[in-house]
## 1
Amino acid sequence: MRRLKVFKSLVIDSVDAITQGSKKYHIWMAFLTFMMLMGMYCYSIQLDQGLSATGMTDRVSWGLYISNFTFLVGVAAAAVMLVMPTYVLKDIDFKQAVLIGEGLAVAALIMCLAFVIADMGGPSVLWHMIPGIGVFNFPNSMLTWDVLVLNGYLFLNITIPFYILFRHYQGKESKASVYVPGAILSVFWAVGIHLVTAFLYQGLQARPFWNNALLGPRFLASAFAAGPALIILVLAIIRTYTAFKIDDKTIKKIAMVVTVAAQINLIMLISELFKEFYAPTHHSESAYYLFFGLHGKTALLPWIWTAIPLNVLATVLLTFHKLRNNFRVLFFSCFILFVAIWIEKGFGLIVPGFIPGPYGKIAEYTPTGIEIGVTLGIWAMGAFVFTILAKTAIGIELGKLRYKK
Amino acid sequence: MSSDNKKWFSLNLNRKKKESSGTCGCGKTSGGCGSYSEHPQMTDEEFAEAAINASIGEERTKDGFDQVFDVKMDRRSAFKKLTASLLIGAGAVSTSCSVISGDESKEKAQIDWEEQFKGNYKLMDDDEKKGTVERLMRSYELRTGKNISMSSKNAEDDVLFGYAFNISKCQGYMDCVNACVEENNQDRNSQMQYIRIHEMKDGKGFNFNEADDNYYHEVPAEGHFYMGTQCFHCDNPPCVEVCPVQATWREDDGLVVVDYDWCVGCRYCMAACPYDGRRFNWSKPEVPETEINKNQHYLGNRMRKKGVVEKCTFCVQRSRAGKNPACVEACPTGARIFGNLLDPNSTIRWVLENKKVFRLKEDLGTEPKFWYFMD
Ligand code: SF4
Ligand code: SF4
């Protein structure tokens, strides 16, 4: 039972590492804990009152939760952009970044699952969804596909880094023959989770705004822009606050990925806009609502008109090598790109699907404080999980955490 | 499925219909699910008390109309209940054998336990259906001292329900809407309504965009005509395909129904319905005890709980008993026609064969069993 002993010592060591740190670190963790507690309090109110505590109605039956869920699936999928070159193409540059990327994927997936559960009307009967005990409407319902691929992806993204760290913890090299197959699998899997999530919406003939063939590919493009953009920001923070060394070269390479994805995303956006506005049909009304408002109802205008300029600006900045290689500009562009895509692929995508309603009724949606509280709480939980994972991983990689025989 | 004996035009999209089958774990309806295990640390009395508190708790003192065992999760008891359900599991049976605590409380706890962990109605056999219906009736009696009757009647052979709506006749009186709410025990607080009546302007055609489905003035309004929508009981219902747990399905007589106890409240079906046919219980539905329609069907107008989806069932409690749905009966103008599409002598068949009928959004391939026509 040597392995178990090593594992036990790893847990003890990492708990040690997590609970110790600079003052800033403690403030950060305390802040996250506070946000999580607040989120839990809001969620308890929602459990008590039912989903009427949120801004959702029969007319707009999905809102902030599902929007965030959709966006975060994209962030999770993006880890693959780092996995592929590192493990498969032996591009040594990315090696340190990839552990961070996978940690990010795990945190994002946990947030995804939390958002789905927060959105459920009956969390107490969630077991109805567990295959074997409940009834799993597979393969008819895309939601069951999503449950499968998300959990599978979570499993992959936990096991691969765990294996590597576990080996390094014992001062051994990790064997490529063990993790490379897993890494290759996760490459395809990441594309899978994103396409399946897009199909969730794309497959609904009732909602013309979603029922278009570009939705899936655009999901991929925007995910591969927003995810690595977030990774760049996180790496920048880690570089500043820890001894973990990340080469400029690594960040520049990831920036390249972000740039290409952002450019493709922009092309697809243009194609979408052309289709909706050159020859508008009855089905273009949702897009009209999103971009110009309908019948004086304009709740989404400020959002989308923040997102589009940010998106364009970031893409332009990233396109020029000079600007992209300047780290200040790079971090700024990554940040605004992330925000822009969060808006666009979040409620810029979900809410207009319901507006106008099936019979043209325009009922707007505004999230309530409770809803926003739960959302912030879940984001804080994601950040918390990520911080813990990253701290342990960095400790091991720096050689601070080692198994003592 | 009856897709091979169609009596109307369909889009021939080569759609293959599969009889879907699912796995269901516990369809057990009686006898709890543990073995007779004694709980070592607690006496039976303590255990019974704990189990009852955990499972019904405050509901012991609750008034009326709550026949549904919505395991209510509030701030105080959410965690308590989660752990308690395991506890009850271990000893539900041993509790029911003890004679110390009140028989009725024990029975309630037992019923709640079985209801919380029963299977999907769609997959139950007739005995199991009877079992759950009996438990629900008994539980209502235990809680309120009043009796309801609840049916679990299955679809009959050679019946396929269909509906036709005469646009020329409808005057927008909304009697159908009120009758529906009363018949189907819909939540009064949120004013949930299955039927929407769209008021349209003469001369604009069927322009839903400019129609008003929420008017409060005297009808019929000058220069307007009216058109009602509700769930159309699609023969190829997209809402059914998307449900992750098969909590909603198409019955053999064409009714699209929901098992309120199986629904997890994801609202995917609402997003998938092109006809605004579904409603969600955003908070706990409430109906004053005196207004409750006590003639119920498991798949129809029995009391719902918070966080589940519901919809028009063509009044399954009435239609399977050979009556017209409440809206048809209530309509003062005779604009609504309901009947068996497979019966060549039915009025609905006469309408389909002699009037110029149409359906909404036929291009989506959902095949609603709800036709519109004009005189
Ligand atoms: S009208 Fe909507 S809810 Fe009714 S069967 Fe068709 S898709 Fe389902
Ligand atoms: S809300 Fe209920 S009936 Fe609708 S898809 Fe979800 S589980 Fe199925």
## 2
Amino acid sequence: MHDVWVAGAAMTRIGRRSEPLTDLMAEAAHAALRGAGLEGPDAIVVATMNPEEFLGDGNFASHVATHLGFAGVPALRVETATSSGAAAFYAGFALVAAGLRRAVLVVGGEKMTHLPTPKVSELIGRSIDPYERRYGATMPALAGLVTRALLARHAVTPREMAQVAVKNHAHGAKNPLAHFRQPLTVDEVLESRMVADPLRLLHCCPISDGAAAVVLAADRARVRVAGIGQGTDTLAVRHRRELTSFPATQDAARAAYAMAGFGPERVEVAELHDAFAPFELIALEDTGLVPPGKAGRATLDGETALGGRLPVNPSGGLKARGHPLAATGLAQLVECVWQLTGEAAGRQVGARVALAHSIGGLATSNWVTLLEAA
Amino acid sequence: MIQAIAASRCPTCALTVAPPAHFCPRHPVEMAPAAVAGVGEIVSFTTLHSPPEGFRAPLHIALVELEGGARFVCHGAETRGLRVGARVAIEAVDDVYYFAHLGALDRARLFWRRAGHAGDRVNAIARSLAQRVWKGSSGAER
Ligand SMILES: [Zn+2]
């Protein structure tokens, strides 16, 4: 297997955007290529979760390649629901690692804010098992089930969950590309509207537009892909034995650490999939970054805040940076690259190893990626 | 009164799922038909305050571990006082499944049995509870 390097990384501002998705993806893609010093890639991997429904556009790899000005370049699309960006990164990684390509552009994005919120929820919810959907299950509903089970086991407290959102908003305030840049208090979270009891509105990430891109190359650059792993689980939540941790994350982490040849002890900064605040606490333990049962305490103690032992979601995470679905897995990796290369102005951690964790569906297709500064 | 619920069991790993599935989610083998009791324990539950189209707010959804092993997703008319681990009975109304606190249902049955009206009345109660949750009469087959 050849070494794979991240030669360029870029993303758009995340939020409510009026531009077409293809323009957002072009902005990120062209900037990543400029960063890599390349005129063009020799292959393109596109990540979008559902442009057919959000935009009415299909054949999206060709659509994007043509729009970018790379109509002659081989292009394919990768989809694993909300973790599509991380999956596309893996596909690009595999092409270079196998020696099939020398410079692959991986670009992901989603445009959602032009649709009403119930429609967006319904479209995202199509990644849920059809039988459970017939009972009204949405992503917040399933996350509500997970959260209730966590609270019942005393695995987390309401204050610890709220602190995740508060911390990530504080981080987002330092990120000029974040969707939300205003701080939040614990009381505001605890008093926000109930969405899927016991989950409240301010435990949940927003609906956002945006795009992110990286160039993966065979030639040495400043950041190396040290390890990457996928873990999967049953589509139906009722087919699982475990509700308060995600085996798909644990399997992905094991695979990534095995490929990297090191464990969680070397990780100095992480981007975790906090679509719902308690998911960050679950991910902290599933990835081995904190010992079982300690994620809530570590969060309250500031260990995972900027300036703490292990800053988590310095970008603001899904909660504050925003969650444009297929852009998110790549946006996390872009933040990790910037943290490793000293380009995260205002929120710089100073790390040599970064971890990104992305959840697809209700933890049916999860990814853990480890990046290392050269 | 408490119905048997159609399920399927994996001949390889004994995983039981309800409703039945063709193949085991973890093994590429055909599952064998099975039935599990319509009683179990609440694994978790939630209430949606802005439910998807076609459902009335508030919408109660529960994950129940049935006796016999299968986990089951169903509605409920009420979650006040409900706890994880609580014993519940599953009732079907127009092919839509609901949980009810076992104690309360049992009490209702005993009462109506003494009054000389057995199943009909309990079903009528369940149906009226259901209508508070469900807009149409056959909404589950949307
Ligand atoms: Zn099996």
